[in-house]
Design brief:
2 domains, 186 residues, alpha+beta, four-stranded mixed beta sheet
Length: 186
């Protein structure tokens, strides 16, 4: 640390100048040559931004991450069970004639594959949807926590809007007409 009074280069945490005895305060510490005031903030801010981007990319590229667009064939949306059987929420959007319906599927701890809109009757206008925390889906608007094994069982309120679903062998089948009808949530 350079003394403002005499310019002597003191050790890093010195409280007094070893050369002239002058008190050294934090405010007197001059930035090192070649640096500008505030450059540390920019460096740490840049590192933080890179970290946020890396986390977002990891979430979107991880299995179960991101949103997959699905379409109907013969009035049905068909999804392989093996694609949604890892216990993680898998997010989809169904498109029909310019209308979009967002939903998620997940295999709950009870072994059942659950299907619901990524919205609820109460908070849908916020368009924030749900996130998964363990075996619970959490409303991104109000924070209500909803057990995954109650999806398709409990209706109404701040709970994921259940979707009718059927199994056809190793395929989960959703009714495209219901998905189109529920696009008003989005």
């Amino acid at each position: 640390m350079k003394c403002k009074s005499c310019g002597f280069d003191n050790r890093k945490n010195a409280k007094f100048c070893k050369e002239c005895g002058e008190k050294i305060t934090f405010a007197e510490i001059a930035p090192a040559k070649g640096t500008k005031k505030g450059s540390k903030g920019l460096v740490f801010g840049g590192i933080g931004l890179v970290g946020v981007i890396a986390i977002a990319a990891a979430v979107l590229l991880a299995p179960g991450g991101g949103v997959k667009t699905v379409y109907a064939k013969n009035g049905e949306v068909r999804i392989n069970l093996s694609d949604v059987s890892d216990g993680k929420a898998h997010y989809f959007q169904f498109e029909d004639g310019g209308r979009v319906t967002k939903f998620f599927l997940l295999k709950a701890a009870d072994g059942q594959v659950r299907a619901a809109l990524d919205a609820c009757d109460v908070c849908y206008q916020s368009k924030k949807g749900y996130r998964q925390e363990g075996d619970v889906m959490v409303c991104n608007n109000c924070g209500n926590r909803f057990p995954a094994d109650k999806i398709n069982v409990v209706r109404g309120g701040c709970n994921p809007v259940p979707l009718d679903r059927n199994l056809d062998g190793n395929t989960l089948v959703l009714n495209a007409g219901q998905l189109t009808q529920l696009s008003s949530y989005f």
